[in-house]
């Protein structure tokens, strides 16, 4: 049995189904992220695990115990709330030490562990300050130190790094992952930052409107999104509408529009490795949607490639160039590695090419008819 399980867990606020029957099993030592847009029910889910919000329905177990109705302080979880309330009248060190005092840890041990926790969040020099004397990001790091110092069996983090600058945030992500691996704490982190979720989690749970739409490793969620929502919420995606014109076992030929057929732009898609066999039951004449990531597209000379396009705008991202193109299948986003060469300019005519393997069939968009 998994370490933490949620079975058909739901929360309604009046008519609003904030969380609508979710099932989730988290293994001991796993780092799982809840990812989804604002209002999709991430905090509500985390708060039900913490015990601060009562479930409307469903069951939560921790290490084989039913904790659905256990009081928060009896669950023994470490929590960093979205609004990380620190004790205002206590110094940084006292804030971090508080949980250890409550657990009866002796003074010498307490001091040692507080110092260690503050060093991890790079706040050792501010131990004597009060919360009002700290920046937002510094307060947030005190909240993280306060949660990890008690070495809880489960660490619940709600947007723990939302106030940190990009550099510190990246450092803290590495630190958090390292601490988590070292002490083996089962961690559930809420974030709406997809790159954060992808970079530090063992698995991501993608939520939409109170439901889970996909649970997968970061790599699979990115490379094999199961539906339109996941493909567009995790990373960027070009969606292409097409019609199946031929099918030969695993291989499907898709026409992306009459003009394109003339230019040889019939995409060939192999359904091998398509997870649950999305290509199953697809027939000639079916309308389908394909997804391709911007970095899987390659720009080439006009007349070459599978499609032609016109650069409408470009953005310099440092290591990459992001191009917006106009094409016969609509707007396309293309992301190219910056290899130091002169980029394509706005207004340029280009060819767009890709490997047939890079296309993904989006299952739920499949319409028979
Ligand atoms: N106490 C409450 N009473 C009524 N509605 C609530 C309450 N708490 C949350 N909601 C609603 O439930 C839904 C889910 O809220 P929740 O806080 O879980 O979202 P979230 O995914 O954490 O969003 P964010 O990324 O903005 O923090 C929202 O529509 C919210 O307005
Ligand atoms: Mg929230």
From TrEMBL:
<dbReference type="Pfam" id="PF00005">
    <property type="entry name" value="ABC_tran"/>
</dbReference>
<dbReference type="GO" id="GO:0022857">
    <property type="term" value="F:transmembrane transporter activity"/>
</dbReference>
<protein>
    <submittedName>
        <fullName>Putative spermidine/putrescine transport system ATP-binding protein</fullName>
    </submittedName>
</protein>
<dbReference type="InterPro" id="IPR017871">
    <property type="entry name" value="ABC_transporter-like_CS"/>
</dbReference>
<dbReference type="GO" id="GO:0043190">
    <property type="term" value="C:ATP-binding cassette (ABC) transporter complex"/>
</dbReference>
<dbReference type="InterPro" id="IPR008995">
    <property type="entry name" value="Mo/tungstate-bd_C_term_dom"/>
</dbReference>
<dbReference type="InterPro" id="IPR027417">
    <property type="entry name" value="P-loop_NTPase"/>
</dbReference>
<keyword id="KW-0547">Nucleotide-binding</keyword>
<dbReference type="InterPro" id="IPR013611">
    <property type="entry name" value="Transp-assoc_OB_typ2"/>
</dbReference>
<keyword id="KW-0813">Transport</keyword>
<keyword id="KW-0067">ATP-binding</keyword>
<dbReference type="GO" id="GO:0015697">
    <property type="term" value="P:quaternary ammonium group transport"/>
</dbReference>
<keyword id="KW-0997">Cell inner membrane</keyword>
<keyword id="KW-0472">Membrane</keyword>
<dbReference type="Pfam" id="PF08402">
    <property type="entry name" value="TOBE_2"/>
</dbReference>
<dbReference type="InterPro" id="IPR050093">
    <property type="entry name" value="ABC_SmlMolc_Importer"/>
</dbReference>
<dbReference type="InterPro" id="IPR003593">
    <property type="entry name" value="AAA+_ATPase"/>
</dbReference>
<dbReference type="GO" id="GO:0016887">
    <property type="term" value="F:ATP hydrolysis activity"/>
</dbReference>
<dbReference type="GO" id="GO:0005524">
    <property type="term" value="F:ATP binding"/>
</dbReference>
<feature type="domain" description="ABC transporter">
    <location>
        <begin position="4"/>
        <end position="234"/>
    </location>
</feature>
<keyword id="KW-1003">Cell membrane</keyword>
<dbReference type="InterPro" id="IPR003439">
    <property type="entry name" value="ABC_transporter-like_ATP-bd"/>
</dbReference>
